C-alpha cells in the first residue's frame, strides 16, 4: 500500500538510564501549520551539538497517516533523528499515558547518548502530561465504560460535554472537545463523583522550558488553507479511503485515529459525497476552530507566553546551545 512506512528504520527499545540534566528540556509548540516543524529542524541543524526531536503529536504516531497529518518526510527524518513517529498501526489505540511513557523514555535515551532532546508538537494534553505529570485517576470499570459508550452512541459527545460544562466549566475546557477524553471524564465522574482534574498528577520525569509561538491570524489562516489544498493535491483523499478500509469511521466511541483533523471530511470527498470545494472549506473551518482551542490551552493550561516565530527561534537557539 502507498501509505505504509515499513521501510523506515525502527528504533531499538529505550532502556537507557535516566540522567539528570542541569538545564530543562525545551518544548516547541504552536498551532497547526504555523511552521513549528520547520523552525525545530532549522534550530536543530544550527545547534552546536547533536539534537534529536521528540514528536508530541497525537496522530503522527500512526503508521500510514502521512499526508493528512503533515508528517515529516524522508528528507527531514534523515536530516535530524525523530522519535515517536510511526509508532503504532492505525488499528491500535495510543493514549496520553503511553505517549508520556514513550516520550520520557526517548528523552532519557537521547540524554544518555550525550545528545540534546527537543520536544515538538501541538497536542496540548500530551504536553501537559509531560510538563505536569499524568492525572492520578482510578482505573476503568468495564461496566461503567460500557454504559458510557452506550450513552455516547445515543446522545452524542456534545451532550456529554454539556453535562461536564454544567458541573465543572474548567474541566470541560480541558476536554478540548475530544470525544475520548469526554467519555473518560464521564466514566471517572460516574465512579467517583469527581472529574479527572480533581485527582492531582504524578511527578514529571524532567523539567521543561515551553517555547510557544503563533502567527498573525490572517497569515495563519492563509497558511492553513494553502496546506489543506496541497495535501488534497498530494493524495489525502486516497489516504482517507485507505484508513476507512482498515478502521471503520463510525464506531462508538469513535476510534482515536478517526479523531485526526479533517479525515472524515476528506473521506466524503474520496467517496464522492461532497465536492472538493465544500470539503476544503469544511476542513479549513475545523482547522481554525482547532487553532483557537490550541491557543487557549497553551495560554490557560500550560501558562505559555505566545511569541512571534522570530523570537521563538532565537529563544530556542539559545536553549539548544546553552552549556549543560
From TrEMBL:
One of its GO terms (molecular function) is tRNA dimethylallyltransferase activity. GO terms for biological process: tRNA modification. Substrate binds at residues 32-37. HAMAP family: IPP_trans. Its cofactor is Mg(2+). SUPFAM superfamilies: P-loop containing nucleoside triphosphate hydrolases. NCBIfam families: miaA. Monomer. ATP binds at residues 30-37. It is an enzyme of class 2 (transferase). This is tRNA dimethylallyltransferase. The record marks 123, 145 as: Interaction with substrate tRNA. Catalyzes the transfer of a dimethylallyl group onto the adenine at position 37 in tRNAs that read codons beginning with uridine, leading to the formation of N6-(dimethylallyl)adenosine (i(6)A). Belongs to the IPP transferase family. Residues 12-21 have a biased composition (Pro residues). Pfam families: IPPT (PF01715). It catalyses: adenosine(37) in tRNA + dimethylallyl diphosphate = N(6)-dimethylallyladenosine(37) in tRNA + diphosphate. Its EC number is 2.5.1.75. Keywords: ATP-binding, Magnesium, Nucleotide-binding, Transferase, tRNA processing. Residues 1-21 are annotated as: Disordered.
Amino acid at each position: 500500500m502507498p501509505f505504509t512506512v515499513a521501510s523506515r528504520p525502527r528504533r531499538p527499545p529505550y532502556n537507557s538510564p535516566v540522567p539528570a540534566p542541569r538545564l530543562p528540556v525545551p518544548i516547541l509548540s504552536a498551532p497547526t501549520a504555523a511552521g513549528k516543524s520547520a523552525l525545530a529542524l532549522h534550530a536543530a541543524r544550527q545547534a552546536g551539538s547533536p539534537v534529536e526531536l521528540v514528536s508530541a503529536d497525537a496522530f503522527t504516531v500512526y503508521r500510514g497517516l502521512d499526508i493528512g497529518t503533515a508528517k515529516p518526510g524522508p528528507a527531514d527524518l534523515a536530516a535530524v533523528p525523530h522519535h515517536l513517529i510511526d509508532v503504532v498501526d492505525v488499528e491500535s489505540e495510543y493514549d496520553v499515558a503511553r505517549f508520556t511513557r514513550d516520550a520520557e523514555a526517548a528523552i532519557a535515551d537521547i540524554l544518555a547518548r550525550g545528545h540534546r532532546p527537543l520536544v515538538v508538537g501541538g497536542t496540548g494534553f500530551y504536553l501537559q502530561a509531560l510538563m505536569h505529570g499524568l492525572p492520578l485517576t482510578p482505573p476503568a470499570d468495564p461496566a461503567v465504560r460500557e454504559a458510557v459508550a452506550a450513552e455516547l452512541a445515543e446522545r452524542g459527545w456534545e451532550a456529554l460535554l454539556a453535562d461536564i460544562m454544567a458541573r465543572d466549566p474548567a474541566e470541560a475546557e480541558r476536554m478540548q472537545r475530544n470525544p475520548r477524553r469526554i467519555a473518560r471524564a464521564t466514566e471517572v465522574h460516574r465512579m467517583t463523583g469527581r472529574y479527572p482534574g480533581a485527582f492531582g498528577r504524578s511527578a514529571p520525569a524532567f523539567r521543561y522550558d515551553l517555547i510557544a509561538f503563533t502567527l498573525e491570524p490572517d497569515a495563519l489562516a492563509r497558511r492553513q488553507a494553502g496546506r489543506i489544498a496541497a495535501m488534497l493535491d498530494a493524495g489525502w483523499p486516497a489516504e482517507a479511503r485507505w484508513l476507512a478500509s482498515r478502521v471503520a469511521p463510525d464506531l462508538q466511541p469513535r476510534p482515536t485515529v478517526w479523531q485526526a483533523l479533517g479525515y472524515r471530511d476528506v473521506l466524503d470527498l474520496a467517496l464522492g459525497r461532497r465536492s472538493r470545494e465544500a470539503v476544503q472549506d469544511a476542513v479549513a473551518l475545523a482547522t481554525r476552530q482547532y487553532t483557537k482551542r490550541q491557543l487557549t490551552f497553551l495560554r490557560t493550561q500550560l501558562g505559555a507566553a505566545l511569541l512571534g516565530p522570530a523570537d521563538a527561534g532565537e529563544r530556542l537557539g539559545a536553549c539548544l546551545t546553552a552549556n549543560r
